[in-house]
Amino acid sequence: MAEEKPQGVKSTLSGWIKAGVTSVVGLMSGAVLMYLTPLVHNAIKPAKPVANFATQVTGLTVQINNRSTGGTHGWWDFGDGTVLEPFDAKAETLKHVYAKPGKYDVKLTLQNLLNEENERTTALVLDAAAPEITFFQLIPLTPGERAPSVYRLQAKAKNAAYCILSVEEDRPLEITDGTANQDRYITFDEMGTYTVRLAAINGKQIVEKAVQVYVSGNEGLMPTAKLQVSYEAIRLERITKDMRITCDWPAGSRENTVTFRKERPAFGGGAIVSAELVNKDDKNGAARNVKLAVAPDKSRIILSGELVRPAGFLAPKTTTPSWLAEVRVVMERRTAPQLINHGAVAMAVNLNTTTKLPLQPLDEGWELVRKTVNVELWDGNRKVWESSKATTNAKVTLMNQACLVTAIPQNDSVVLKIDAPTAATFPPQGVIPATHVPPPITLLPPPSGPIGPVARPTFVQPNPLLPGRPMKK
User: Fold this and answer.
1) CA distances from residue 340 to 110, 288, 371 in whole angstroms, order as listed
2) Do residues 299 and 272 lie in contact, with contact meaning Cβ atoms separated by under 8 Å?
3) Whether the model pTM is above 0.85
4) Which CATH number is associated with domain 128-217?
5) Right CATH number for 53-126 from 3.40.50.700, 3.40.50.1100, 2.60.40.10, 3.90.740.10?
6) Which of 175, 336, 374, 413 suits a disulfide with 388, CB 3.0-4.6 Å?
7) For position 319, what pLDDT does the model report?
């Protein structure tokens, strides 16, 4: 009995020790959890994101002041169809320029490290900016500005949706793109004063400028050259489109890294000129080693890379990362060849001079296939010569003279030279040609007989307006 007592005491002490250790461990665990819980909430679990911002509108430009908190990544949607812009938590302000006035919704979507999300949307109303005509002029190309006379019109507008050109009352109005520079040739066939007006319009706002020109008469004394050009051209349309391509984690994969490959075809039957990955610097995304390429036949884009599973105890094996690629694609579409004819350019020309007949330019956005040029020479109401190819020393009768005509086509004009035996040029405005000096008059002595009727000498004086055609006086 005495030998069993120490064992009983030993067993009792062991039980007390175990209970004490368990209690201490329990107390320590409770203390650790008590202090660890705020640490988990404050340090490991981030604050929920709050999307907040203010906007300031100036014309078509909006400035955004970022006042959001708790967001690590996200994107801005400006509501105009442009590509989403990645959110930068360090950027306090950013700007965006809209292409045209209207109503837009600006949206900010934020996420934190746990992908908790918050968003805010603000409506904007952008009024049309006032249009402005920054440049407008008419340059005469015809010597003496005599009918038919050619003028080169050059104009440029700013903040204009479209422009309207008015030349004469009997000519139709021309409506053109307000962003394109105006550069063309205008022919005035008859003598008179003309007012050319250009109006730039944006929304309900309009601004106008006018230039007045005076074309003097020709009276059929100068030959007329008419130049007709027709183009066979292909319309080139460049379109920019933003694509959003989602790269998802394959279902059931237990790997830490998987590869992806996405292909997207061109739209509308066009050819892809270029492609750009807008959010390639998205360091918060799950994608790595991303490559974007255009297929050799320019029919599609190819996006490839890797998706990486987040590391750490917050990202278990069941996590399936996803990455949204923002791709900006520039495409070019080509139409079938079309025939374009801008009408003839006519101008009065002098003999024994070289004249540059301008070709009406091909509008922007067209690719030339071939052009056909035809030159005509008119003597009054009579067409005396015509050619659609380069010509040297062609025999032509102009102003009752045997002349030689040379016509050399160039890229933007046709150089025309008329060689005549005599220089039959029309004098500049306000200059009266010198008249021929009449021969000296010799007075005869009076007869010795009775005085009868006096015979007065006569002479021929040239008409100053019609050289070579005498008029009796």
Assistant:
1) 53, 51, 9
2) yes
3) no
4) 2.60.40.10
5) 2.60.40.10
6) 374
7) 60
